[in-house]
Design a protein that fits this description.
By secondary structure, the chain is mainly alpha-helical. Helix content is 36%, strand content 5%. Helix 1 crosses helix 5, helix 7 crosses helix 11 and helix 9 packs across helix 11.
Length: 444
């Protein structure tokens, strides 16, 4: 997204990317009740369907293949079928698998399943989840294909040592010095939302470097995952989600866009499958928590997006583009020929249609990976109940050289008040090469 970033949910080199559409999973012959519905809501908050459903397949039947440098990880069937799924799991078996990554019989799950985050889930919520997966999901008898990793990564007992290093089994405990709303937000972000699994850097062994705001500045500070840069969700001194208003964060998580920005890449599926289904109260709590992470009392107040956009209209870059005074500026030329029709000469875009570039966190962030990838490969917005139109950013990799892309990004990152670092043609070439479907660069 422009502000938050892809989704996804895994170890460094073992990343999961949400890749399917939320599907109705309530068994038709089972009447809904409060506890079951509560479990369904929590399963959506945890985005369980994204990793345990093959696109077009039965909900939660597993089989989603995730290629990693170590081999292919395949998600398991978590429907209540006793042979293919988890129908023979007791509640204690279920809780141990979710919180500790240990399946029935003692076999270890790989931490592509974010059980170190799910360890925070409280007993009453775990009970509701168990009820939903046992009584609210249609059973599927087919067992998911096995995971195949290279030696020695295929030796699951090695996870004992990894868990000793990175698994904190304590459930979330409220901070008495904080409000109930803040604690609810912290519980959701650290636990079911497992936001840190994508937005926190990892060690060489694949464990996140921080699991909460108490563990230092690495927590939610942003990192590369699956070829996208997951944006910082904390205060860093640069524009970030933590500086958005509560209304902006709630709107973004409900609809996948705000008046100035939009979700892209893996974050699209997170919004579609998970956050759009959460209550406004819970999303407001998430906003309250994120706004606090890394905040410093002596920090100057955040500049509002409205003031940034107002200033962009009269910025020298805008005036030069409008007057056509861009001779010799290759980045400005590329921008006028390819970008200005949607994002406008002022860089303010069009509300909830074409994201603003002025003051945008993705434009200003130190690591330009996601910005480069957007220009090369494009991305569609989320399709949600509140905003069903999946407007797409087209791909320009086929028509722009690496130097063209670097030039236009350097123009964008230095115009309308933006202060992003310079982008090199070599950085663009590296991202182009890593695209899932590489786009050939145009010959200069």
């Amino acid at each position: 997204m422009i502000g938050l970033s892809p989704s996804p949910r895994a170890l460094q080199g073992m990343a999961l990317v949400a890749a399917c559409v939320v599907l109705p999973a309530l068994a038709q012959d089972k009447p809904a009740d409060g506890l079951l519905e509560r479990g369904r809501y929590l399963a959506q908050a945890g985005d369980c369907v994204s990793c345990h459903t093959v696109p077009g397949g039965a909900p939660f039947a597993g089989g989603l293949k995730m290629k990693t440098p170590f081999g292919t990880i395949v998600s398991t069937n978590i429907t209540p079928d006793p042979q293919g799924g988890i129908g023979d799991y007791s509640e204690a078996d279920f809780a141990r698998a979710v919180r500790e990554g240990v399946g029935k019989g003692g076999f270890h799950l790989y931490p592509a399943m974010p059980y170190p985050s799910f360890a925070r889930i409280r007993d009453d919520d775990m009970h509701a989840l168990y009820t939903f997966f046992q009584k609210g999901v249609k059973p599927v008898a087919e067992k998911a294909p096995p995971t195949h990793l290279r030696f020695p990564f295929n030796m699951r007992f090695l996870m004992v040592g990894w868990n000793w290093l990175y698994l904190d089994k304590r459930v979330y405990v409220d901070d008495s010095a904080r409000s109930a709303e803040w604690n609810r937000g912290a519980y959701l972000v650290q636990g079911l939302g497992h936001c840190g699994d994508c937005h926190t850097p990892r060690s060489i062994a694949g464990g996140v470097k921080a699991q909460s705001e108490k563990d230092g500045d690495a927590y939610l500070s942003g990192t590369i995952i699956d070829g996208w840069y997951a944006q910082p969700l904390r205060h860093t001194g640069q524009p970030s989600v933590s500086q958005w208003t509560t209304e902006q964060i709630v709107n973004y998580l409900q609809s996948g866009r705000t008046g100035e920005t939009a979700a892209f890449g893996p974050m699209v599926q997170v919004v579609e499958n998970s956050t759009q289904h959460m209550s406004k109260e819970d999303l407001s709590a998430v906003a309250t928590y994120l706004q606090s992470v890394g905040a410093r009392p002596d920090a100057p107040p955040a500049v509002t997006q409205a003031s940034v956009l107002a200033a962009a209209v009269n910025h020298p870059s805008t005036k030069a583009l409008q007057a056509g005074a861009i001779t010799g500026n290759s980045g400005a030329m590329v921008y006028m020929n390819n970008c200005a029709a949607c994002h406008r000469a002022s860089g303010i875009g069009a509300e909830k249609t074409f994201p603003a570039l002025a003051g945008n966190s993705v434009v200003n962030v130190k690591d330009p990976t996601s910005l480069i990838r957007l220009v090369l490969g494009g991305s569609a917005m989320a399709s949600t109940v509140q905003a069903p139109s999946a407007i797409a950013m087209p791909d320009f990799g086929w028509r722009l050289t690496d130097a063209n892309v670097a030039d236009v990004l350097n123009f964008v990152r230095s115009s309308w008040g933006n202060q992003g670092d310079a982008v090199s043609a070599a950085q663009v070439a590296a991202v182009r090469k890593a695209l899932p479907q590489p786009v050939a660069a145009k010959t200069p």
